[in-house]
Design brief:
The complex is a heterodimer of chains A (109) and B (121).
Chain A: E1 9-12, E2 18-23, E3 33-37, E4 44-47, E5 61-66, E6 69-74, E7 83-90, E8 98-100, E9 104-108
Chain B: E1 3-6, E2 10-12, E3 18-25, E4 33-39, E5 46-52, E6 58-60, E7 68-73, E8 78-83, E9 92-99, E10 108-111, E11 115-119
Parallel strand pairs in B: 2-11
Antiparallel strand pairs in B: 1-3, 3-8, 4-5, 4-9, 5-6, 7-8, 9-10, 9-11
The chains are: A mainly beta (109), B mainly beta (121).
Chain lengths: 109, 121
Amino acid sequence: SYVLTQPPSVSVAPGQTARITCGGNNIGSKSVHWYQQKPGQAPVLVVYDDSDRPSGIPERFSGSNSGNTATLTISRVEAGDEADYYCQVWGSSSDLHVVFGGGTKLTVL
Amino acid sequence: QVQLVQSGAEVKKPGASVKVSCKTSGYTFTNYGLSWVRQAPGQGLEWLGWTSAYNGNANYAQRLQGRVTMTTDTSTSTAYMELRSLRSDDTAMYYCARIMAGGTGRAFDVWGQGTMVTVSS
């Protein structure tokens, strides 16, 4: 089955840029979605279809996807961005299953 | 506004079954699929399966095949997830999530608040 690999943790100072990667075999051929989850809360969609933002999500959140790596970029990081972030894809057209990455804990120093 | 409201916490003994509900509002129920995701304490997200609210078709994660059933009730705009033969490692927060328009391949744009299921003797 398809595997998505995320770094367990990323740390960044306020005002800097955080980049969270999601690795998968030829992930660039898939649509990647990203979720933010704060402690005790349900996940929230922050980026879908590689780089689109749902309404209400700040422009500071952006995404890219190419080759074997998708990246969630958070610009001008704020304390409130501290959370777990998960990438997600669907399997092949013949395998309508969903895969989540293991999650990355973003710490704002 | 679009809302998914889940049933309350459950405590079950090993071997029992649990049925979690997800009542939706604010959109046309049959136009969207629904997925179920769980999260064990301190762990990541695990996808369980999805169901079409249009025709009731369902697709389940391999590791749960035979133990899980996902259904929908269009008369009440509610989705259900039943898990049988519960084990201690089924202890988790269970979430329902709406699949964006367009169906499979799309993101989960609205999530329920979660239902804690605890399996303990």
